[in-house]
UniProtKB/TrEMBL annotation:
NCBIfam families: galU. It catalyses: alpha-D-glucose 1-phosphate + UTP + H(+) = UDP-alpha-D-glucose + diphosphate. Its EC number is 2.7.7.9. Belongs to the UDPGP type 2 family. PANTHER family: UTP--GLUCOSE-1-PHOSPHATE URIDYLYLTRANSFERASE (PTHR43197). Pfam families: NTP_transferase. This is UTP--glucose-1-phosphate uridylyltransferase. It comes from the Bacteria. One of its GO terms (biological process) is UDP-alpha-D-glucose metabolic process. Residues 10-274 form the Nucleotidyl transferase domain. It comes from Streptomyces armeniacus. Keywords: Nucleotidyltransferase, Transferase. GO terms for molecular function: UTP:glucose-1-phosphate uridylyltransferase activity.
Length: 300
């Protein structure tokens, strides 16, 4: 039986990036606030954490990220206007983000990589396992990846990373795991991690995607991790150290995700994510799909 001490309740969301791939839209607007249909991308990520039982959320921010804090705070003036108008539906939508979770914020300061962003969370996280969710990956709520990962961590201990099978020709875009089977069909033992290997060098076609459940031992490893390219501290390097020497803080396992994932970190994939999610909405889908069919048939 899992002790309450090891129960995971805290989520960390790094959100200090500059979003340069979306300039000029992100010149004054954080990339995490770009809308995916009618909600900012970051709200989907916080909702995912809360659905998995992680209601204590720490966001690692940077300069020009104040809109993130404002979005998850109350907007009394707007709420009062909607209340006066009797627009209960919009009032509920506005209040959803401020009622989601207990939100905390800390600034990363210098942009020294994902590993450094995670290290900034140590004072808040303490000595408990915790989750890290990257905002570029949106996971469909019908495919509860994070809940599965926390269950695996509670069973096996150590750290757990999310993996996804990709075309070997695209593995150079990802971190890649050298893995072996366990008794669970969707869980693998991770022995090594290789950052963006060529197809010939890759130990598998299992790519790391932006969900992690980490043992607090990762903080000590991160403190000893040498900065890599661009002077950044890489989380992958710390996880590689944990995988190669479990005595540092337990084993590393991977959950192989076979569900629906929407990549919002690339402009083309961002547009595709919006189209896919809009098509599946009950309130938007029927009319939007009809228009889309007509548009595609004309363009073809």
């Amino acid at each position: 039986m899992t002790s309450s001490r090891n129960r995971i309740s805290k989520a960390v969301i790094p959100a200090a990036g500059l979003g340069t791939r979306f300039l000029p839209a992100t010149k004054a607007t954080p990339k995490e606030m770009l809308p995916v249909v009618d909600k900012p991308a970051i709200q989907y990520v916080v909702e995912e954490a809360v659905t998995a039982g992680l209601s204590d959320v720490l966001m690692i921010t940077g300069r020009n990220k104040r809109p993130l804090e404002d979005h998850f705070d109350r907007n009394y003036e707007l709420e009062e206007v909607l209340r006066t108008k009797g627009d209960a539906a919009k009032l509920t939508r506005v209040q959803e983000s401020s009622d989601l979770a207990t939100m905390h914020y800390v600034r990363q300061g210098d942009p020294r990589g994902l590993g450094h962003a995670v290290l900034c969370a140590e004072p808040h996280v303490g000595d408990q396992p915790f989750a890290v969710l990257l905002g570029d990956d949106l996971i469909d709520p019908r495919d509860p990846l994070l809940a599965r990962m926390t269950a695996v961590q509670e069973e096996y201990g150590g750290s757990v990373i999310a993996l996804m099978e990709v075309d070997p020709e695209t593995i150079h875009l990802y971190g890649c795991a050298a893995a072996s089977p366990t008794g669970d069909d969707d869980v693998v033992n991770v022995a090594d991690l290789v950052e963006k290997p060529t197809a010939a060098e890759a130990p598998s076609n299992l790519a790391i995607i932006g969900r992690y459940v980490l043992d607090p031992a990762v903080f000590e490893v991160l403190r000893k991790t040498t900065p890599g390219r661009g002077g950044e501290i890489q989380l992958t390097d710390a996880l590689q150290a944990l995988a190669s020497d479990p005595s540092l803080g337990g084993p590393v396992h991977g959950v192989v995700f076979r569900g629906r994932r929407y990549d919002t970190g690339d402009r083309g994939d961002y547009l595709r994510a919006i189209v896919r999610l809009a098509c599946e909405r009950e309130d938007l889908g029927p009319d939007f799909r009809e228009w889309l069919r007509e548009y595609v048939s004309k363009e073809m």
